[in-house]
Amino acid sequence: MKKYLAELIGTFCLVFCGTGAITINEVTVGSVTHMGIAITFGLIVMAMIYAFGEVSGSHINPAVTLSLAVGGHFEWRETVPYITSQLTGALIASLALKVLFPSSLLLGATLPANATLQSFILEIILTFMLMLTVLLVSGSKNNQFTGLAVGGVVLLEAMFAGPICGASMNPARSIAPALVSGHMEHLWIYICAPVVGALLATGICKLLGKR
C-alpha cells in the first residue's frame, strides 16, 4: 500500500502543479507564461522522482508503468494497482483545481493546436525520448541523476512542443483534466500516443542490450 499511496500522491502533485500552472496562466491571462509552465512541469517531475523514487520507483505515468512491465522491469500484478493509483491521484488534483478555479474552461486539458495527426506523432516522439531517458539513466551507474535527467527532458520537451501538442507524454496527466473539464474530444491522442512511444523506447533499449 505504501507504493500505491506514493504513486497516488506523486501523480497528484504532478497534475496539481503542472496543470495548475496552465490553469492559473489561463485565469490570469498569461502571468505564468509558457516558459513558466514548462519549468513547473520539469521541476515537479524531478521533485517527485527524488521524493518517492525509493518507495515506488515514482512512475507517476501509466505509460511508464506499462512499458516497464512489458520490458520485464516491473511485475505485471502490480500494473493495475499502480495505474489505478496514478489515475486516482490525477483525478483528485483536477477536481481540486476545479474547486479552486471554477472559471477555468480547460483546467490544463491537452488539446492539439493544429492537425490531430501532427500532435499524435509529436506525442509518440516526445514520449519515446522521455522513456528512453528513464530506462537508460535509471539503469546506469549514474542513476542518482535520474530525477534531474528525467525532469530536464520533461522541461525541454514541454518548452518546445507544448504550444503544438501540449507535450503530455502521460495518459494520467491528460485523462483527469479532460474528464473534469469535459474536453474529451481529442483524449485518444494522449492515451494512445504516449503508450506507443514508451513501448518503442522499451524495444529500442532491448535492441541496444540496455536493461
UniProtKB/TrEMBL annotation:
Family to which the UniProt record says this protein belongs: Belongs to the MIP/aquaporin (TC 1.A.8) family.
Segments passing through the bilayer: 31-52, 87-111, 117-138, 145-167, 187-209
The entry's keywords: Membrane, Transmembrane, Transmembrane helix, Transport
Protein location: Membrane
GO cellular component: membrane
Mode of membrane association: Multi-pass membrane protein
Signal peptide: none
One matching Pfam family: MIP
Record keyword Membrane present: yes
Official protein name in the record: Aquaporin Z
Molecular function as annotated in GO: channel activity
